[in-house]
Amino acid sequence: MKFSKYQKKVNETSNYSQNSKVILPAMWAAEETGEILHEIRQVLKDPSRSYDIEKITDEIGDLFICLSNLASDLEIDLDDVAEHSLEKLAERVLEQEKEGKGLPGD
Hints:
This protein has 4 helices and no strands. The chain is mainly alpha-helical.
């Protein structure tokens, strides 16, 4: 699914007030990020546990919804965001290769 199609479907279900645009999805995104971190922290605290992939997948999905709403409120197309972020990543990789640092995460 293209991001723009996803964004359109999410936007059709958004039902918060005009006064809450931008700030509400931004706050929700922070909350969802916290929930993802909580799930990860559970494994860090107890290495015998496994990641709850279903829970983390649900939270990432919720985060996508929040970010889609935020982008729509700001009239930003998610396809453009995805394309721009890949270009930015490619520039970072080139810069790190020039500096001899390798790829991100190495």
